[in-house]
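pipeline/complex-builder :: batch 7 item 3
reading input block
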Amino acid sequence: MLKVDSISKTFRSLRNVVRALTGVSLEVKPGEIVALLGRNGSGKTTTIRTVCGLVIPDEGSVSINGLRFGQPNYMAQLGALIDTNRVLFPRLSPFENLVYTCAVRGMRRPEARERAKYLLDLLGLWEKRNAPAQTLSKGMVSKMAFAVAIAHDPPFVLLDEPTLGLDIDAAEVLEAQILGMAKAGKGILLTTHQLEVAERLCTRVAILSGGRIVVDKAKEELLEMFDLQSYRVTFKEPVNLPELPFQHTLDESGRVLEVILDHPEQLYELMRRLHPRPLRSIEKREVELAEIFRSYTARKESHSA
Amino acid sequence: MRKLAILFGAEAWRAWLEEVRYPLQFVMGLVFMGLIFFLLKGVAQLSGVSSSNPETIFRLLVGYLLGLLAMSALSGIAAQISREAKSGTLENMVLSGHGLTAFFVTQALARLAPILLNTVILFLVLTNHNKINFSLSWEMLPAIGLFYIAALGLGLVVGALALLFKEIRTFFMLAQLLVFPAVIANLPQLEWFPLVLGASVIRDLLQGSAVEAYWWILLLAETTAVLCVGVLLFELADREARKRGLLGHE
């Protein structure tokens, strides 16, 4: 299991002090895809970089299958895609880049060549195996970054925005690989701003806001919980809304209000505030992960304000 | 040790691929370095040093080539750090689990072959052109080895600065200004400086003189000390860069 245990990190420079993470804890079990979501600057990349050992936390620890960073074989448990744009040795071809990556991880040359061939085939890059790395398109480089991350077939993989900038076909190929890896028992921690990608892939959702984890739940549990708190209110005629202390949107016609409550009992409060506007219907509705994300990050921001 | 051998094998393969892919770079480097030597010779002549004296030319030539070798080690690690940070491959080095010190030292050693080949070709061509006689002995190998390791130790110090401060081009220039004249001129006042001591031992060996055990012991002790300081500072800088979150930044 990959375990992030109460890590905190503050970056200090001459000009400013940035509290990046506060007591962040997370777990990724084998076969699980955990989506780490958050707005820009919420601490996602710092969390990923800390797990990789690129950042040393001020407090807390990270362990993988009981091994802590610095212990032999910690890194053998881990593969990471940190930057999809910059990952290749520019003077080597994709095939050579992968053979080198495998060789550095201890594979013998014939084994490394086999693995490189397998990965290039898998990601549809075999045709480009001998092209200079500088001539690859952005999408191809992203796929190569993914291939480099999983070259040594690690049990845990960290993916920082893996589908960023990919066209729909390339994104589908990558998503299929990620799902396949999880099926094969690998634990995956991924960050993304594409919430529909997270919704399709993940089994668990952790949301970071202001450097803190504000929610960490199984995706189904989270969606179910929000289904109980999400309502669609339809009015007989366009209305002006009173001040509502819940996340809500009123459509352009001014007749349909969608609202997410913090807990189901707030429905009474909602009704009280909407009175005496003419109601046509009120119904529960299914929510999407994007709305849950907005709800949590907005809530955190309003609390900190 | 097995891990280092794996790393060395992979790095040597990468260095070889990069060299053979750009052969003109190697040839032009050779021509350029040859031309710089003639420029140096001209400057020496203008400043009143007799360039017809084989002894003077020999000192200049050996000093120049050793200076080039030292500079490749001195700036090589820092230059490689900047290159890897730019291409985004520095993170992958960390993720490989070898540790950055092992990575960059191994990389420098794996890239030594073309530099040595360059130096030997230039040495043979220029000694032949200037009709200089020299003698070769097996003792040259440890002498050049110790000279290079000392330069590598200093290279780690410069690399440590590159890890923390990123842009250190002016420091490179300063190092070049200090190291080149020190190695070429072989000033007695700087005899304690490891690179100068190493250069002096190599010069003596090439001229067929015996080197006393005392100088060997001193050279070995100095080289070990410089390498240890280099490794220590590089490790500290690596840790500090991770603490500040700077690793992998350009």
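note: Chain B has a mean pLDDT of 85.
queue -> next item
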